[in-house]
Each structure stands twice: as C-alpha cells, then as structure tokens.
Design goal:
heterotrimer, A alpha+beta (305), B mainly alpha (685), C mainly alpha (209), B: 685 residues, mainly alpha, two-stranded antiparallel sheet, 21 helices, C: 209 residues, 6 helices
C-alpha cells in the first residue's frame, strides 16, 4: 500500500516540523511578549487555540479511524451506502460549534475592548509619555512634544512608563508594530490613530512598518529602547543639543529615502505633528483632531507632495 | 504634446525588452516564445482551422469549460514559478545573496496574487462549473451561450494583459489588493497600476456576466423533477458562488473605476488630501474581497462533496445541512469585510462585532467538515488521488480554520496582521481548500471530458508532492509570522529566520515538482489513453447525471432530457431501472447555438482597449471600445443562429453508446483502476 | 412565445421545469439579475457620495452650494415623463401589433431622455464654469461620478434604442426585438428608480443643508 505509506511519511514530516518549530520558539515575536499589550495578545492566542482544538481534535482522531476502518480493501466497518442522516450527529455537529463560538464570542468581546489600542494600559500611576509618530518613506519620525525633541528610527522611553503614541503618515499608508510589545495600527495621511505601549524591562525591541509602501519598506524599522530614568534624561539632553527640526529640514526628511542610522533633533517646529496632518486638509473640514485655524494656514506653506 | 504622445501614449522603445535583470528578460522571452511555439505547432500540424472551428468559436459549454481550465493551467504555471522565485529570494537574501531587486519583488507578489485569484482559481472554477453543472442538472447548455463565450474571452484578455506586463513595461507593485494611496499617481506613477486596474476590469465584467449566466441556468434550465433540493451539492455551491459573483463584483468594479478616475482624471476618491480617503477604498475593496474568498472556496466545497461521496461509495451525509451551511456561508460572507482592517483605528465595539460575525462563519464551515467525515463513515473508501487530496484537505483545512478564528480575534490580529502568519493562513485555506479541490475535480471529471482516466500512480505522486510541499512551504510561515516576519518583505536580515525560510523554499520546490508530476501524469495518460479509455462514461460509479452520458459527451449532452425523481438521480437510475436501455421512440432534432467568432473578437478588442488605456493611447482605446460594441451590435443582427443535430444523428450516436454499454463488462470498485474499467460500473455489494 | 399572448415574467423560481416556461422567461429573468447587479453599483456610488458629502468637502463647495433644485426638478419631470411614455410603448408592444404606436412612443421617450441628458450636461457645464470640477474635492469627485454614471446609463439606453430601431423592420428578428424592447423597458425604469434615489439623497438633502 504505497498510498498508506505516503500518508504516514507525510504526517510524520508534519509533526516533526511542528516540533522543531516549538524547540526554538521565536525570540522576536508574539511569544516573546514583553509588555501587557502583547501579553494579552499571546494569552488570547492560546485561549482561542485551546477552544478551537475542541472541534479540531475529534477530526484528527476521527478521520484516520474512519479512513482505516472503512477502507475498501480490508475495511472492517459495516457498509451502509444509504445512511445519510442522524439526528444525534446533526445535533452535535451544529451544536458544539455553536457553543464554542458563543464562548469565543464572549471572550472576544471582552478581550477586544481590553486590547483596544486607544485605551491606556493603566498599569502605571505615572502619566504616559506622549509621542507623536509619523510614517515617512521609509523611516519613522517620533516627536516628543512635551520634551521638545524628535528622533528618527529610534523610540527611547523609560522602562515602566507607558507610551501614548499618536500616529499619522506623510505618504502612503503604513502600519506600526513593536511585535514584542503590541500594536499594530495603521498610519494614514491626514488622520490620527493611537497606540499604547508599555514594557517594564530595559532593552531594545524591534519596531517596524508592516504595510508595503515601496522598495524601502522592508527597511522601515526602528528600535524601541526602554531605558532607566537617568539614561532617558541623558538621551533627552543629547537630543536637545541636536539640530532643530524646522520646516525645511522636515521637508528634506520627508523625501523618500532609507535611513542609514538613527537621527536626533532638538526643537521640532511648533505643532509639527498637527501641521503634517493639516497638510491634507482644508479649513472647515470635519475632523475632530484638526489643529486650530492659525496653524492650518501655516500648513499650506509646508511642501506637500 | 508631440506626435509620439498622440500616437503611442507613454509607450516608448525603452519599455520593451531587453529588461535590466536576467530573470525578467527570461520571463519576457517566454511570453513571446510560447505563442510563437503554439503558432508553429498549429501550422505544422495544419490545425489552425480545427482550433478555430472546434474550439475558439465554439459556444458549447463543455468546450468553453475546457478552455477556461487550459487558461487557468497556463496561468498556474506562471504564478507558481513566481512563488518559487519569491521563496528563493527571501531564503537567499537572508543569507546575504539576493537574487532579484526590491522592485522586481514588488511586481512578483502583485502578479502572483492577482494571477492566482483572478486568472487561475476563478477561471478554473468557471471552467468546472461550465462543464459539469449543465450535465448535472440535465440541461443541454447554459441559458446564454454567447454571453458565456464572451465572458471567457474577456477573462482571457485580462490574463493576457497581466502577461503583456512581462514584456512591455512593468506591473503594479501594489499587491493583489492594490491599496491606495500607494497605488495613486503620487506614489506609483507609470503603467504598472494601470495594467492591474484594466486586467481586473476585464475579468470583473466577465465574471459578473458568468455569475448571471450560471444563476439563470440553475434556476431555469433544470430537468423535469430536478427540484432545487434534488440538485447535486456541486450545483448548490455553483449557485451560491454565482450569487456572490453577481453581488460582490460590482464593489470591485466601483473601487477600481474610482482608482482609475483618480489616476487618469485627477479625481480625489482615495488620494491623500483634497477630501480623498483611502478608508473608502478599503471598505469597497473588501466588500468585494471577502465574498470573493467564498467565491473561491464554495465551488471547492462542492467538488469535495462529490469526490468524497463518490469515492466512499456512499450517499452524501447531511445533504440538507450542507445546503444550509453553504447558503449561510454565502450570506455571512457579506457581513465580515471589516476584519481585513481591524487595525484601521475604529472602535472596539465595531471590531468585536465584526470579529464575532467572522467566527459565525466558522460554524457552518465546521459542520461541513464533519458532514464529509460522516460521509466517509460507513462507506467503502477508495484511496484514489482525488480522495487523497480530500484527506489532505480535511486535515489542513481545520488548521487553517483555527488560524482563521485566531485572526478573527482583534487582539491576535493586531499582532499578526500583515505578517507571514496571515500569508500562511490564506494559503492554508486556498491551497488545500481550493487548489486541491480544483486538482481533485480535474482528475475526477477528466475521464468524462476526454474519455479516458488519468494515470493513478502519477496522480498519487503528485498528491504526495503537493501535500508535502504545502506543509513544508507554509507551516514555517506561521512560525515566521509569530516571530515578527512581515509579508511583502523582499529581504529579511534575521539569521533566526534562516532555517524556516530554507524549509519553506524546499516546500516550494516540492510544490513545483508536484506541478511537474501533474504534467507527467497528463503526458503518460495521453500515451496510455487506449488502456485508460472509459467510453461508457461512468468510471467511478458516479451518483449524478453527468455520469449518465458517453465520455466524452456529445454536443447535445442528452439525447432525451431525463426525468428526475430524487437526489442522486443516476444512482436511482442504476438501482431502479436500466440507465442504458434504448428508448427508440424518443429521438428528435436538437437545436443548439451555432459557432461564432464574435466572442473571440470581443476578447481581442477588450485586450487592445485595456492595453491602450494602460499606456494612454487614447485613439486606440476609443477605436477598440467602439469595435467591441460594434461586434455586439453585429451579433444582435444575426438573430442567434442555431445549428441542428438531426434526430437520425442523435439516434445513431446514442445507439452506438448503448451498444458499447451492453458490450462492456461491468467492473466493481476493486477493479476501478484496471484497464477492464470501460466506464460501466457495478456497485459495491 | 405566441404573438398574441405576451406574459411579462417576473422573478418566479417555482415551477422550474423548463418545458413549463415560455422562452422569454430565462432571458427576462437574467436581465432582472443583471439589473440587481447594476443596482449594487449605484448603491455603492450613493454610499460613497454620502460619505464624501460629509468628509470630502476639503474646502470646496458643500452640497448646499451646488444644488440647483430648478434644474433637478426639470430633469426629474423629463425622466418621469419618459418612463411614462415608455410604459405606453410597452402597452403598444403588448396589445397592438401595429408598430406605429410603439414607434411613436419610443421616439417621444428617446427625445425626453435626450433632453434629460442635455439638462445634465448643462448642469455640469455650469458647475465647471464656476470652477467646481471633480478635481477640486472628494465630494465633487463623488458628485460627478454618481451623476455621470447615471447619465452614461441613460445615454447607453438611448443608443440601444437607436440600434434596435432598424431591426424592428426585419421580420426574422421580430421575436428577439420584442424581447429587447422589454428588457430596455426594464432598464429604463430602473434608471428612473435610481434617479429618484439620486434626487432624494443628492438634491433634496443637498438643498436642505
């Protein structure tokens, strides 16, 4: 029976593969979660898998059994070619998935609200650090309005402090994620989305754009660096001594290019983030988070592409 | 504006080959050489007239079905080679030796997706339904044979537009979903996105018309007594898919037309600024895109139902629940589009509602899986290649279902959206789910179409390669996705990924070998066609009416339209009466539509129009558009010419078939694979 | 189909055994389905218009600023009248075997349709003259696309009618031409229904803002 042997080999290969996958479980993704947002995602992943397994496992057991017992050559099961309905089976195959989906639905409702990226993670009593992120071709600009600095390709925050990100794009749509911490959410020109991230552990975490935006897209990465409070102050001080991010320098930065190394800027232009959004709007547009009219007028002076 | 622009639009010599990179040059030469080779073969064998009269101008649903499948097969080869190239690039680039540039990679994932969905699976499905459905419901043709041919040639024109982009200029790098604003003029100038838009427009029109045609046929052309609830399940899935085609294709047409207006006329639907909003596109596109997924999968469910029931030698378990499940899936498919962009920043309430709606689809889908398992239960299962594919399907599909429910969960989706996990998920649904069904359906119905079975050994080899290749190619992508590897990335730089990428590359190689095995199978079977012939037409002890006809069936399908009294009409005939008893009284002249070359010419004009629009050659676009409509008007003057098959011819043909049936020895299922199987079945006792 | 008894089929999915059907049934049924598909298209254009008329103004004119109720009123009257005259043509097709009445009403319908298109072109020209072209804003893009698509439909219906015209004289095509006129009638009435929706959502809502 070549076919049966083929099936055995195939199944063996599949299980070996999944085992080898588990052996060196990823150090960069969801299963190396290092913050509450990603933790929730991982937990949901496991809960859903466990619940759905209730439907899958019976098939994984039942199918080989049926194939063996009812095979044409040598099958021992009785042959009932006209058997095509059973009330009990019908009840089970509709009922069990309905119950599981109902349970999953309740779980999903709660977790979706809990994991709402707009919602503060509220794990800390300190106020969050406000950072404004802008997706450019092909780098990430982070503006720290309260500290008055900006950086490109690097998001430095004190460990244990929540980061409240407001995100927009000045170019095609992008999407921001830090796989070990949370996300993702789209960055769209003329609009703002929000994301909250937090980790208590010092270290570097890879962040990236996940949405194709052209040839440099796969290098649109940044480092989320969680540091101690002293280091953070030092970093802010260093950034403040950097060149100012005025309109001209911003326009230069916004041109498509790949980032060679992270950049630091002191003194971003006032309302820079709002100005970037305002570029895509006219006065009177119905958008809640639009800057005040004075700023809107200034926006027209910035180079739009 | 100079005269070159008036005459040639933006098309210039530099858009023609040679291309800057070797692989692209090779691909371009292939596209040029393949038609030349076909032309030479046709000339040498003096077959031009034959191909024109017998195939290209035919309005016979069976031939149109076969031509759809040929188109799909040719495009499948291209799309799989592209997939192999992408796997090679990602695996090699991660160890420091990329094989292609980032721009070329962008074209590859865009053409691969566009081709697989619109020019492989859709035509393949249209082909199978075209061939099988009228036979299953006891009809002589579709309701609108001319429209059917026009749809075919419009689809073919769309496929040729994608192929033209290999030779002239470039294709879009915006992916199969073509999200603006990236695909707007500001970020994607040039012809690439135009190619994508017009290829989709052609096939979109073709598919909408096909959907209408199938639906009307299923409602109006059924044999006497073939009530809706007596139709084979494949027809039910065909009906659901046609309804989805009718309602889901317009959003695509609207979305691409608006994108075209943005690009060509400076409108502001999806641009950054001036009131444009890409979120509108995301909604329109997925309002099409999600039902589209079920357009692709539902007919596959139909094929599985037929294959599993036939090769288990048993009635389909839970016919009613399968019908209910099919229709629930079709209806629910319109209510879940938002799960394609949970990450667009809408409220948690909205995400949760769409997440729950998405999981609801899991219920009827789960029911179907168990219906198939119960169909096998108490059967006599023959491990033919189609059934082996079905087994792989059942095992893999539930895994895909699991990852689908995971993705329906917004928090999990936030983590793996746009990642290789997502890529693995939809390939997990579409390869074992749809593509394997199409291969299984091809092997299952091939004897009916051409009169001989396909070699079983090579079929089994192909199954092994496809199944193993699939697992090796896509299971690592799940892991990679969970490790933060994102889709559409031309170059990773993480040594951790290397083993996974290498295994996936091996899997891709295995899939290509599986494709080659299918080719060998066809070749071997054609050589052994005498031994494999099944002229009586029922090689598998089939259940539905398509098996109650000679293989291949005559143009008129049935000498007399059968009277149907229940489900599984052919099984009933075999059990109660004598399906092969002559009925000398009942022969009459049969009228079927005459051949016409107009649909082919509409396709050609459609191709020229799309090409001209892509390159802004306005005069040519107008001329070819007018030509298309002139052809339609010309047809309206012809008044639907028919050809008549005289009663005497029908009688002769039918009696020859019945004579063959009387002469043949019935074979039982143990001898199904032996040369003794001439297509006369003796049921298992 | 016998010439004296002309059934006007609707959606009828019972009694589906083909012998029980008139030849016309599947053709008309198919056209109904096509119309449904076409209606989805208009629905989406209307939905886009709805979204754009709020979020897509972008400093350009608002719906209230471009609404010309007089013009819309005349257009509505023209189109409704044309639907009425087409109904008269349909009655002529059904009960009188004389083509004179049919032709007369079709000509009137065609002229009314042409006048409607003329009015719409005038509206577009007026708007464009004020600089209110589709390139100004998402809202104007949606406005032109919606009305333009409808206008294109009406125009193609008129072309269709013109194409049928010479075929009415050909005896060989008589049965087909009847079916074509029946389908054209459905198409024409559907465009009227769509226009009513457009009047409501575009012009009346526009005027009320």
């Amino acid at each position: 029976m070549t076919r049966a042997r083929g099936a055995t080999i195939l199944l063996g290969a599949a299980s070996l593969l999944s085992l080898s996958g588990c052996a060196q479980w990823p150090a960069q993704g969801l299963f190396a979660a290092a913050g509450p947002a990603a933790d929730l995602q991982r937990q949901q992943f496991l809960i859903v898998t466990a619940l759905v397994a209730l439907v899958i496992v019976p098939l994984f057991i039942g199918l080989p059994w049926v194939l063996w017992r009812y095979r044409l050559r040598g099958g021992r099961g009785d042959y009932r070619p006209d058997w095509d309905f059973s009330r009990t089976m019908e009840f089970l195959i509709w009922g069990i998935p309905v119950v599981i989906v109902a349970v999953l639905g309740v779980v999903l409702w709660h977790s979706t609200h809990k994991a709402d990226p707009y919602r503060p993670l509220a794990a800390s009593d300190q106020p969050p650090i406000v950072v404004q992120a802008v997706a450019l071709d092909w780098k990430w600009l982070f503006i720290y309005p309260d500290q008055g600095v900006a950086s490109v390709g690097q998001l430095v925050v004190p460990a244990g402090r929540e980061v409240a990100l407001s995100i927009t794009a000045d170019g095609p749509m992008a999407s921001l994620i830090v796989p070990r911490l949370g996300g993702q959410i789209y960055a769209m020109a003329g609009m703002t989305t929000q994301l909250h991230l937090l980790t208590n552990r010092n270290g570097d975490y890879r962040g990236m754009n996940t949405q194709y935006t052209g040839t440099g897209f796969d290098q649109q990465h940044f480092t989320y660096r969680a540091v101690g409070p002293a280091q953070f102050s030092a970093w802010i001080a260093r950034a403040r001594s950097g060149p100012a991010l005025d309109a001209a320098r911003y326009d230069q930065l916004a041109k498509p290019s790949k980032l060679a190394k992270p950049m630091l800027f002191g003194a971003p232009a006032p309302h820079l983030f709002e100005l970037i959004i305002a570029k895509y709007h006219a006065e009177g547009d119905t958008l809640a988070s639009l800057p005040p009219p004075g700023v809107m007028t200034t926006a027209k002076g910035m180079g739009a592409h | 504006m100079d005269w070159t622009y008036w005459l040639f639009g933006t098309l210039r010599w530099s858009d023609f080959p040679p291309k800057p990179d070797l692989i692209a040059t090779f691909a371009a030469s292939l596209v040029i050489l393949a038609p030349i080779a076909v032309a030479v073969i046709l000339t040498v064998t003096k077959r031009w007239k034959w191909i024109w009269n017998e195939w290209l101008t035919s309005l016979d649903h069976k031939k149109i079905g076969v031509m759809y499948c040929v188109l799909a097969a040719a495009m499948l080869v291209r799309a799989l080679i592209e997939a192999g190239l992408m796997r090679t690039q990602q695996a090699m680039a991660n160890v420091g030796s990329p094989v292609i540039g980032a721009d070329h990679f962008g074209e590859l994932f865009s053409t691969h997706g566009t081709i697989m969905i619109f020019f492989v699976v859709m035509p393949f499905i249209s082909g199978l339904i075209n061939f099988v459905m009228p036979l299953q419901i006891g009809a002589r043709d579709l309701t609108f044979p001319f429209l059917n041919a026009a749809s075919l040639w419009l689809t073919a024109a769309g496929a040729m537009i994608v192929n033209a982009s290999l030779v002239v200029g470039k294709f879009s790098t915006g992916g199969w979903s073509g999200y603006p604003p990236f695909t707007e003029l500001a970020f994607s100038p040039g012809e690439g996105v135009n190619y994508w838009i017009w290829a989709l427009t052609l096939t979109g029109i073709g598919t909408t018309l096909t959907g209408i045609n199938f639906a009307v046929t299923l409602y109006k052309e059924r044999a006497p007594g073939m009530h809706l609830m007596r139709m084979p399940l494949f027809c039910w899935t065909a009906l659901s898919t046609s309804i989805l085609m009718i309602f889901a294709l317009p959003p695509l047409t609207v979305a691409t037309a608006m994108l075209a207006l943005d690009r060509y006329a400076g409108f502001h639907f999806f641009t950054n600024g001036a009131g444009g909003n890409m979120m509108l596109y995301a909604n329109l596109f997925w309002l099409f895109g999600h039902p589209e997924v079920y357009i692709l999968i539902l007919p596959a469910f139909g094929v599985w139902s037929e294959v599993i029931s036939t090769f288990s030698g048993k009635k389909l378990y839970g016919y009613t629940s399968l019908v209910v499940a099919t229709i629930s899936i079709a209806v629910l498919s319109f209510t879940v589009w938002l799960h394609h962009f949970f990450t667009m920043g809408q409220s948690a309430d909205v995400n949760a509602i769409f997440g729950i709606a998405t999981m609801l689809i899991g219920i009827p889908t789960g029911v179907k899986v168990y219906d198939w398992l119960l169909t096998m239960y108490r059967g006599r299962i023959r491990f033919t290649p189609p059934l082996l594919f079905a087994v792989t399907f059942l095992f893999c599909f539930v895994v895909g279902g699991l990852t689908g429910v995971l993705l329906a969960n917004a928090p999990v989706d936030f983590a793996v959206h746009n990642s290789l996990f997502l890529v693995a998920h939809f390939h997990n649904m579409l390869i074992p789910g749809t593509l394997f069904a199409l291969i299984a359906g091809y092997m299952y119905w091939f004897p009916k179409v051409f009169g001989f079975r396909l070699d079983e050994r090579w079929g089994t080899i192909s199954w092994f390669l496809w199944s193993g290749g699939f697992l090796l190619a896509f299971m690592p992508l799940y892991a990679l996705g969970l490790m933060g590897a994102m889709r559409r990335t031309s170059m990773f730089t993480d040594p951790q990924y290397t083993p996974y990428l290498m295994i996936a590359l091996g899997g891709a190689g295995m899939i290509l070998a599986g494709l080659a095995a299918l080719g060998v199978q066809l070749f071997v079977s054609i050589r052994r066609r005498e031994q494999l012939a099944v002229p009586v037409g029922d090689p598998w002890d089939g259940h539905s009416l398509e098996w109650w006809s000679p293989a291949p069936p005559p143009e008129w399908n049935f000498a007399r339209i059968p009277q149907v009294d229940g489900t599984e009409a052919f099984t009933a005939m075999k059990r109660d009466g004598q399906p092969y008893v002559p009925d000398p009284e009942n022969y009459e002249d049969i009228c079927l539509p005459a051949n016409t070359g107009i649909p082919v010419m509409i396709g050609v004009a459609g191709f020229v129009c799309a090409f001209a629009l892509t390159w802004y050659i306005w005069w040519l676009a107008i001329v070819s558009l007018v030509a298309m409509w002139a052809l339609v008007v010309l047809r309206s003057w012809q008044g639907e010419p028919m050809q008549t098959f005289p009663a005497e011819l029908v009688r002769k043909h039918t009696e020859e078939w019945l004579e063959r049936a009387r002469a043949a020895t019935p074979v039982d299922r143990f001898a199904e694979n032996a040369p003794a199987n001439r297509g006369l079945a003796e049921p298992i006792r | 189909m016998s010439s004296d008894k002309k059934l006007h089929p609707g959606i009828n999915i019972q009694h589906t055994d083909p012998k029980a059907h008139l030849e016309a049934e599947p053709i008309m049924f198919g056209f109904w389905i096509f119309l449904m598909s076409d209606l989805v298209l208009f629905t989406l254009l209307l939905a886009t218009y709805g979204a754009m008329s709020v979020h897509g103004i972008a400093g350009g004119p608002t719906p209230g600023q471009i609404t010309d109720l007089t013009s819309a009123g005349i257009e509505t009257a023209l189109l409704l009248a044309s639907s009425f005259t087409f109904a008269l043509a349909s009655i002529a097709l059904k009960y009188d075997d004389n083509q004179r009445a049919l032709k007369r009403w079709l000509i009137v319908t065609e002229l009314l349709g042409a006048a409607f298109i003329g009015m719409e072109i005038k509206d577009f020209v007026t708007l464009a003259g004020k600089g209110q072209v589709p390139q100004v804003s998402g809202f104007l893009s949606a406005h032109y696309a919606l009305l333009g698509t409808h206008m294109l439909h009406v125009a193609s219906a008129i072309v269709w009618m013109v194409m049928i015209w010479p075929q009415m004289k050909v005896p060989r095509l008589k049965k087909l031409v009847r079916l074509r006129i029946m389908r054209l009638a459905l198409f024409w009435h559907m465009l009227d229904v769509v226009w009513v929706a457009i009047v409501t959502f575009v012009f009346l809502f526009g005027a009320s803002t």
